[in-house]
Amino acid sequence: MAEAMAERSAGAGPIPATEVIARSGVSRAAFHELFADREACLLAAFDLAVERAGARMAEAYAAQPRWRDGIRAGLAAFLSFLEDEPALGRLCVLDAIGAGDDVLSRRAQVLALLVQVVDGGRRERPAATAELPVVIAEGSIGAVLSVIQNRLLVEDGRPLMELFGALASMVVLPYLGPAAARRELLRPPPRAWRGAEDAQPRAARVADDLSDVRITYRTARVLSAISEYAGASNREIADRADIVDQGQVSKLLARLESLRLIENMGERSSRGAPNTWRLTARGERVRESAGAVGAR
Known about the structure:
This protein is 64% helix and 2% strand. The chain is an all-alpha fold. The longest helix has 25 residues, at 38-62. Helix 4 crosses helix 6, helix 13 packs across helix 14 and helix 14 (234-241) crosses helix 15. Strands 1-2 form a two-stranded antiparallel ribbon. It has two domains: 2-193, Tetracycline Repressor, domain 2 (Orthogonal Bundle); 208-295, Orthogonal Bundle (Arc Repressor Mutant, subunit A). The chain is elongated and about 70 Å long.
């Protein structure tokens, strides 16, 4: 059903049950043992899409300690799902809109759950956002889906993951403000969802002499913090590495940058932009070798 709908041209009308039966290679009797009609089959296909996308998103979101990290992880998981399962993804985002009352009703239930998650941003900074109405979350989700829908309609073959920064920025803006939203434009997707770049075997990485790097407990904590929270500022790294003195963390970051273990993405956008750090390939190798230290 999902594949048939994905291949359907705009305005072509509903997919008949006979086409789904032919595609699936089952008998008409077998089809009707499972589904009362094509609408029931379509609802089941939508539920399958939601189940698979939702499982990825829920796992990614729950693994993060903070709302913004969870939003970023969940969004990356959703974009990854759309690329991995394009037919179900298109049904979930695009084709469901004109799929009938049953699917629209189920879609509304799913959106209501997403609204609850996004609305949790009010608790990230209660003093600044406690009075924001829930319609802000509804608008954020609607805007994200609209951008994704437009990209799916264009069918230009460009990866959906390249939308990640802009979409994450849209979601955090009303809750965390314009500075945080600008930073999201620079931050890469969470490591678990970056794809081929991080899937290369360790043996295939370029060899490098790490003899000039002295791995201390604090170094390990800072590298681990940046690895888990790429794009973090000096203050955020200090918080995650339990460093109270901001001067100390600034000196440590400068040393790690001189050792080519981290790089400042903020400098790439414009001079004077806020620091947003990420590990280099060399820094990742050091972090892996220091993992046992940072875990203690």
